[in-house]
Amino acid sequence: MAVLVAAIVSAVGLVLASLWFAWLRPLVRRSNEWAANLGEELALTGERLLREPESALYRGGTKPHSAVKGNVKLALTNRRLIFRKLTGGLDEVSLAVVTGTRRAAWFRGARHHGRLHLVLETKEPGEIGFLVRDMESWELAINRAIAG
Fold first, then answer.
1. Which range marks the domain in which residue 10 is found?
2. What CATH number did the domain enclosing 77 receive?
């Protein structure tokens, strides 16, 4: 019986490892390449990067932003908050429509392991939520950027 359990666990491990190399690894590589090249792209538009791209969790948003949650690379410029989903495309929020930020234990009916959500409030009306590593510095950077 123990041999059967070990064989099943090994087979599942091999399947997961093959998924990582065949599917997830290229997505992570593409996301990292985007983050590495963002500064050059912004230089062409005259935007300034205020916060370097870093990993975060997108917790969804209201229209026109996607409700689908996922891993993102998140960056802040003097004009917009840009986020690229690991399994999706590029999305952005113009700072012209952001009215402020708030912290929330619950966002869109969900709580995430007791962590606080960073919620962007917009004029649209709508909200967009993220889980970031350094809540205070993101809040400060966003609020400074929207203040001009």
1. 2-147
2. 2.30.29.30
